[in-house]
């Protein structure tokens, strides 16, 4: 049976990061899109202080609606978790399953920063103030995403990551319905190593009922480090 996947990237990334996962899923006969959200990737020219979680949610909602996609398996990596949560809140009838790949989890009114360890939040805010003109978080090295120096794609990632709009971390996510809005939900933890900024998300999901839980023994940027394994996991969803 043909499945439809919309793969949503995290901070500093763009749709480009799903290249190998998308290729694997397409070889299996599935339909895949990899939208890029406002202000990053090939849309970096739109970076500004006004970008919030609502902007990112609107990006994904408009993509799904404009492409006339239905029964979507909506996958959010890292910060992309807020985008898929918001999309499910607005257009649940288009979505069959939510997959959080080491993804951020925030409830209505919460900001991503409110769910992260305080030391990480303080360090990122300092960078925004000192280097990001109060608008963006400068690009970290690929090692920040679990990609080791010397990996075959380290330079590829370094060339493509772009500054990230700070407002997507500072502003709260607006939800009308409970998180997930009744859609089936799977959380995938990248365990080798665990990504410290997602500690709050992991702890929250572990306390909830009704979530499927999967683990991948790879670093945070699993779609780059283990694209075959990610594609196989996603192919089994739904």
Automatic annotation (TrEMBL):
Residues 6-231 form the AB hydrolase-1 domain. Keywords: Hydrolase. GO terms for molecular function: methyl indole-3-acetate esterase activity; methyl jasmonate esterase activity. It comes from the Bacteria. SUPFAM superfamilies: alpha/beta-Hydrolases. Pfam families: Abhydrolase_6 (PF12697). InterPro entries: AB_hydrolase_1 (IPR000073), AB_hydrolase_fold (IPR029058), MES/HNL (IPR045889). This is Alpha/beta hydrolase.
């Amino acid at each position: 049976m043909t499945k439809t996947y919309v793969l949503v990237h995290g901070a500093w990334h763009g749709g480009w990061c799903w290249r190998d996962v998308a290729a694997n899923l397409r070889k299996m006969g599935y339909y895949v899109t990899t939208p890029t959200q406002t202000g990053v990737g090939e849309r970096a020219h739109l970076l500004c202080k006004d970008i919030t979680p609502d902007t990112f949610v609107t990006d994904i909602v408009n993509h799904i609606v404009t492409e006339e996609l239905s029964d979507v398996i909506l996958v959010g990596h890292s910060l992309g978790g807020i985008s898929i949560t918001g999309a499910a809140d607005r257009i649940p009838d288009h979505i069959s399953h939510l997959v959080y790949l080491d993804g951020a989890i925030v409830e209505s009114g919460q900001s991503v920063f409110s769910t992260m360890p305080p030391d990480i939040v303080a360090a990122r805010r300092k960078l925004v103030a000192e280097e990001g003109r109060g608008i963006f978080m400068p690009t970290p090295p690929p090692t920040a995403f679990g990609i080791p120096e010397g990996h075959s794609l380290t330079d590829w990632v370094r060339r493509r990551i772009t500054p990230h709009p700070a407002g997507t971390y500072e502003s709260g996510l607006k939800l009308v319905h409970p998180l997930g809005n009744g859609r089936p939900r799977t959380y995938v933890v990248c365990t080798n190593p665990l990504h410290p900024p997602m500690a709050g998300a992991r702890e929250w999901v572990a306390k909830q009922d009704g979530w499927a839980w999967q683990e991948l023994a790879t670093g945070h940027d699993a779609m780059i480090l283990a694209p075959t394994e990610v594609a196989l996991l996603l192919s089994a969803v739904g």
